[in-house]
Amino acid sequence: MFTKREKKSGVEVLSTDIELRNENDIIFGNPKAELSVIVFGNYSCKFCSKFFKEVLPVLLKEYKDGIKFVLKPVPFSDTKEEMDALQMAVSVFKYGNYESFHELLLKDSNVIYDKNYQEYILEIMNLNQAIADNFLDDETRLYIERNRSLFKDLKLKGTPTFIVDHKILSGYLDIKKFEEIINNSLKD
User: Fold this and answer.
1) How far apart are CA 172 and CA 166, in angstroms?
2) DSSP letters of 34-70?
3) What digits encode the pLDDT tens for the residues 20-59?
4) What value, to the nearest 5°, has the Cα angle with vertex 177 and ends 176 and 183?
């Protein structure tokens, strides 16, 4: 595990090279892109939402096939509704139309507590058995719990937290800052 961190030029860097990726991660952009940006995030986080709405679409358009953003969903609470929403996000990404589900959660993160949302989840599962099976699989819940443990093990402070070339970048970053980080990473 990444237990050692050090500072280089004022930026925290993970000192061990370990694979952060997991087959359950949600990927935005080209899955085969060389540059990966790991995003620890949660739909309930207003800064994550701002990133997903304002920054991510611009960067995906600008860098096209050269970059992928890898979302590692991290629960804020132990509520059934939040865990179900994150499990459903993983399941829909793997077997359904993630873009519309993603947009729903971005529109209002509190939708997960609405009765209509619960009916929507059941409808999705009735229409797509693969989504239902993945949602009900304990491995999906364990994956989300492992994300939370990794977040804590890395001593990350809040969401969004980004890891680019083993550099830890905490908090919301605007487009200009991201362009600088990405361009520097692509040069290396």
Assistant:
1) 17
2) SEEEEEEE-TT-HHHHHIIIIIHHHHHHHHGGGEEEE
3) 789 999 999 999 998 999 999 999 999 999 999 999 999 9
4) 85
The alpha-helical segments, DSSP class H, found in the chain are 46-50, 56-63, 80-95, 98-107, 115-127, 129-136, 138-153, 175-187
- Predicted TM-score (pTM) of the model is 0.89
Distance of CA 185 to the CA centre of its chain: 20
CATH number of the domain at 5-187, out of 3.90.1150.10, 3.40.30.10, 3.40.50.700, 3.30.565.10?
3.40.30.10
Q: Are the C-beta atoms of 135 and 141 separated by less than 8 Å?
A: no
